[in-house]
Amino acid sequence: MEIYQKLLGVYKEIMGVYKEIIFKEQRVRIFRFKEIDSTNKFLKEIKEKNDFDIAIAEVQTSGKGRRGNKWCSEKGGAYFSFLLKEDRNIAFEEYTKLPLVTGYSLMKTLEKIEPFLNFKFKWTNDIYENDKKISGILVEKIGDYFIIGIGINLNNEIKGEARNTAISIGKITLKEYNVEEIIIAAVENFKKDLAFYFNGNWEKMLDELNAKNYLYGKNIEISFENGNIEEGIALNIHKSGQLMVKTGDREKFFNIGEIHISKNN
Q1: What is the per-residue pLDDT for 4?
Q2: d(Cα 97, Cα 61) in Å, to the nearest integer?
Q3: Is the bond into 124 cis (omega within 30 degrees of 0)?
Q4: Position 85 pLDDT exceeds 80
Q5: Which strands make up the sheet holding 119-122, listed edge to edge?
Q6: What are phi and psi of 227, to 5 degrees?
Q7: Torsion angle defined by CA atoms of residues 115, 170, 119 and 196, in that order, rounded to the nearest 10 degrees
Q8: b vs e for 84-101, b when ≥16 Cβ sit within 10 Å of the residue's Cβ?
Q9: Cβ atoms of residues 106 and 137 within 8 Å
Q10: Dist. CA 133–CA 244, nearest whole Å
Q11: pTM of the predicted protein model
Q12: In 3D, which of 32, 197, 13 has the Cα closest to residue 102?
């Protein structure tokens, strides 16, 4: 990709710890690891934080998703996190949709790479293809920074029971991908899409998310940390970012909860 090639041209070695690039006229650090417990955890713990610093790992030993779910991180996938500094001039409520904005942006990035695959967005933070998970997103907050963690199944082999629910893009297309090229493109596109979102285009983005809404029409169960379970039929994602679910003769709105698709779909 052209963007990636340009960025490679301005790499600067700094003490062998990270590399620094000029990223859209902004100085950004890329931290690379052969193996690490979690790229999100790493960015949480570093003292000096800069907007859009990126941590990349070939393997994560303790990668996780929402609600602490473990993310399998075999070599060949794209496992990365980046920092986003909160702008105090923007209402915090706008940031509550970050998982959805990230999902929108990532789905568009993957569609550019493989336009003939049918990627779907699973509220609130997953990308699916042909009923199997391709990617997961985790957004966390520490101080003035959001940490956006992303895992994409690219060239990695899915092992064990995970093969029933996940697949890598390379397995579908029989291609080999440049992992870092896709990571850089994903962060670059997110930066553009975030500006698009903040400029009042949420409803346009929402229309595209709902056109690709993986859960729509499916019988689902929503489980909560207190043990409660709600059942219903998934509808659209509301403009608030909540999932609309038909339960009996009512429509309810949910903004939290673990989604399970019922076996009787």
Answers
A1: 44
A2: 28
A3: yes
A4: yes
A5: 12-14, 18-23, 26-36, 54-60, 78-85, 145-152, 132-142, 126-129, 119-122
A6: 95, -10
A7: -70
A8: beeeeeeeeeebebbbbb
A9: yes
A10: 22
A11: 0.88
A12: 197
